[in-house]
Recover the amino acids of this structure.
């Protein structure tokens, strides 16, 4: 097939997909304009003044709430992150990266009578520049978490979720991101060390965090009064992270294996009803991969030049804790101190970075006049595989260097989140990164950041 024919076929597939998406958007628009009327129920756009809506544009005089109550929840968002390195890297420089998001959640029980079924579709687009690269800072983790995985449109979610046995069983199937279900953690900091699922930050070569999705399935068993246990299966293929066919729900050729995560989550409430989340999990990828250090004879291949040793499988484990400790007042449980701890380890046979720890606190409602603002502080560590460090030291001792011997990178971040109205936040921040890249060969970095996030 010629290149022209392939491009035409791809264009037809895109047109087919967007015609169907377009019909859904058109239906929503007609409902909001009042041109579609249900036979069994008259339209009512009377706003619910008791509901605290989370959108910057409000509830559209009741229309958006009306849609949501009947099974259609629309999402439209924007996040932008500015960063400037006062120290660190080869020169002071500024960079800006951002993400646009459009999505919809369809409650198919309300819309079509399919009991317990939900459908989600989300498209993202990323643009901009990355300070870590542009200023040659050499960091292991990006100082702008919103950047990465290609500056392109992506189909980030396309899945159906089915609840069974009165919600006891929860089954999900489709194009999914790893971190929305396993080791899930919010992005309230600008440094990637403190954002999203920690396994995807440590081994990004095969565990893909947002916005990259994979064909996958997840089965969860909810335990009354405790939490849940879950397991999943994700197709492993490096083409998911490429920039080809990113907007289409294609099945890529060349998959190398299956990623199988498991997780146990406890959701307690401490005295006073303070919520917490305690996750412990592990994963195993069935792919055959290269050893990151050893050649076929067990010697460092950077010295011998022989091909790397092959091994079957790669694995790791993680722990995630989030706990609210103190409300500001007994009747204001949203306000107060929350602490978190994330820790993840991966096999030193297959991972360039083999462990990461991040801890911090977020205090919501620092002032009575600003009950929705918060102050956050976090500290972390990402360590380069000690086997790699040993091979680097060996190369220096044999006169093959100089090679920087890598150890651990230590980032710190302090921020203040200002929420002037619902759906809008501004977050100035300060980062300090000790040993970027895990080596003193890179100067420590002082980074000033500013995040803008809008939920339309």
């Amino acid at each position: 097939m010629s290149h022209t024919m392939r491009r035409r076929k791809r264009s037809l597939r895109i047109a087919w997909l967007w015609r169907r998406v377009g019909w859904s958007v058109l239906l929503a628009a007609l409902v909001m304009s009042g041109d579609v009327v249900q036979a069994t129920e008259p339209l009512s756009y009377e706003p619910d003044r008791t509901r605290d809506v989370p959108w910057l544009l409000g509830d559209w005089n009741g229309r958006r709430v009306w849609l949501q109550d009947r099974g259609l929840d629309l999402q439209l968002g924007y996040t932008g992150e500015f960063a400037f390195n006062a120290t660190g890297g080869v020169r002071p420089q500024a960079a800006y990266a951002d993400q646009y998001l459009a999505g919809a959640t369809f409650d198919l029980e309300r819309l079509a009578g399919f009991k317990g079924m939900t459908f989600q579709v989300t498209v993202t687009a990323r643009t901009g520049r990355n300070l870590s690269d542009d200023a040659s800072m050499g960091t292991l983790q990006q100082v702008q978490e919103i950047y990465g995985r290609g500056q392109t449109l992506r189909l980030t979610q396309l899945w159906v979720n089915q609840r069974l046995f009165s919600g006891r069983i929860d089954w999900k199937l489709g194009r999914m991101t790893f971190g929305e279900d396993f080791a899930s953690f919010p992005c309230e900091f600008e440094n990637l060390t403190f954002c999203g699922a920690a396994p995807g930050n440590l081994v990004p070569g095969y565990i893909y965090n947002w916005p990259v999705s994979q064909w996958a399935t997840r089965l969860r068993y909810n335990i009354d009064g405790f939490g849940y246990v879950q397991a999943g299966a994700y197709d492993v293929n490096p083409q998911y992270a490429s920039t080809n066919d990113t907007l289409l729900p294609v099945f890529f050729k060349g998959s190398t294996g299956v990623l199988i995560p498991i997780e146990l989550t406890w959701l307690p409430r401490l005295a006073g009803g303070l919520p917490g989340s305690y996750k412990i999990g592990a994963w195993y990828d069935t792919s055959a991969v290269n050893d990151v250090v050893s050649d076929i004879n067990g010697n460092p291949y950077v010295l011998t030049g022989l091909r790397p040793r092959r091994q079957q499988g790669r694995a790791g484990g993680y722990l995630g804790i989030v706990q609210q400790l103190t409300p500001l007042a007994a009747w204001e449980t949203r306000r107060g101190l929350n602490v978190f701890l994330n820790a993840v380890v991966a096999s030193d046979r297959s991972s360039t970075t083999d462990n990461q720890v991040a801890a911090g606190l977020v205090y919501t409602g620092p002032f009575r006049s600003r009950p929705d603002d918060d102050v956050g502080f976090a500290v972390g560590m990402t360590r380069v595989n000690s086997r790699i460090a040993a091979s680097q030291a060996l190369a220096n001792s044999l006169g093959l260097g100089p090679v920087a011997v890598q150890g651990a990178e230590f980032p710190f971040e302090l921020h203040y989140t200002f929420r002037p109205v619902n759906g809008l936040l501004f977050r100035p921040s300060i980062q300090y990164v000790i040993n970027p890249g895990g080596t003193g060969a890179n100067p420590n970095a002082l980074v000033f950041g500013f995040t803008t996030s809008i939920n339309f």
Summary: The CA atoms of residues 271 and 346 lie 35 Å apart. The first helix runs from residue 3 to 33. The first strand starts at residue 72 and ends at 87.
